[in-house]
Structure formats: C-alpha cells, structure tokens
Amino acid sequence: MQTKTPRRGTIRLTRRGRIALIATGAAAVAAAVAVPLLLPDDARPDTLTIPEGWRSGQVYEAVDKALDVPPGTTKEALPKADLKLPRDAGGNPEGYLFPATYPLSSQSTPASVLSYMVNTANKKFGVGQVAAGADRNAVNVYQSVTIASMIEAEAGSKEEMGKVARVIYNRLDQGMPLQMDSTINYALNRSTLATSERDTKINSPYNTYARMGLPPTPIGNPGEEAMRAATNPAPGDWLYFVTVKPGDTRFTSSFEEHQKNVREFNKSK
To answer: Which pLDDT does position 200 carry in this prediction?
Structure first.
C-alpha cells in the first residue's frame, strides 16, 4: 500500500504513513515476554524492546547496540544461531523476530536473543487459532505472517487492520496484483521517500505492482494485532483504499470512487 505522496493523477492502491513502517522512536509494543535471561549486567540495558513492524535489519542493529557488540555482529551470528524457523522461511528470520520487550543479562548473546525472539514467534503463531485462520483464508501460516507484515506496514490504526487484510485477500482472490508501495520500499530498503513510476517497474520479487501474489517473505516483523487481522479479516468487498487525510482512510470496491478519493487526496497536498 502507499507509503508515499502520489503524484497528481497517479492511482495508488493504498496509503500508509511512512513513519510507522520504520519507526525508531517510542512505539506501542506487545506485552513483555517473560523470558529469563539470567541477571542483568550493569554495563548493559536491562531490556530490549522491538516495536511492531521493524525489519530484521533494524532488529539486528538494536541487538548490536544493546549488547554493545560491533555493528554487524548479530547478523553474522545467524548461521550459527540454530533458529527454529519454518521451512518456508529458508533460514530468513524476517517476520519471526517477534515484537516484544525482552530482558537482557550478562550472558545474553546475539544468537540467544534472536532465538528467544523466534521461539516467542513460534509460540504466538503456532496456536490453533492461527492455523485455523490460515486454512479459512486458503493460505499457510508462513503466508499469513507475510500478510500480517504488510498489514502492519499499511494500516494507519489497529481499527483499519481488518479492512486492509480484506483488501489483500480480495485482490488475491480476484487475481489482481497487490500493488503495495510498502513491498517496493522493502526491496529498496527505504521507507521515507515517494514511490515513483520507475520504482514500480523494478525487477524484484517484492515488486507487487509487476508480480502477482504475495512477496516471497514477510516485509517486517508483525505483532499480534496484525496477525489477528491476517487470520480474521473484516468482511467486505473492498479492493482499494487511500488515506485522504489523517483519520480519513477510505475503502472501496469501485475503481472510479477510488480515483475520486485519490484526486481529493492530491488536492489536499
């Protein structure tokens, strides 16, 4: 969906404010996960908070800083971390570094912290309701996590998440490209600049303008609310949405109505 200001007259599927995708300040996070990592070391922070929607690269950087290790150490630890990832992930933990507040100790290592994050994700995503919800929507759990990551990036509020989920499923069901700017931003490792027509033609499996279906992996690490929306989308026939102004996101099944909403959005700029 949209993480940019569309050029006048350009039709975009959706809207998302770019800040929430790559927020680096305070953010609402899932409840603290009670994971005992021994006693805290005075030289380190007591906890590490991972906000919803952070990409894996941001998580690695945060772990490096929290454990006071050289930049890149956490990412380099991945091959030896023995993370319990689903087979579909192909060893890529994106989507499974669960957003929460984790306690740290003098014995915490990059590998141990990543393992707790992935183990927590498996507990959250491995419950029966998630599998049942995935089945209802004709996807598997890993695909549900991928959808949840897009919802996290696109929805302007928790209240919108169910509708965003429904747009994704409706477009998939109708054989329409998802056309989400958030997936292009993921491919280009950015979030704060406008998506151009040239961007929508990049050769990437994450280009959901040019390629059908879901991106090959999650595009961030979703929280419980986004996962709940991915497995229980709101009922509706919407195919498009755009935020005309803050607090005014309009969902519609009509391309003509969507064009009108986009024109109104452009006039407000």
So the answer is: 92
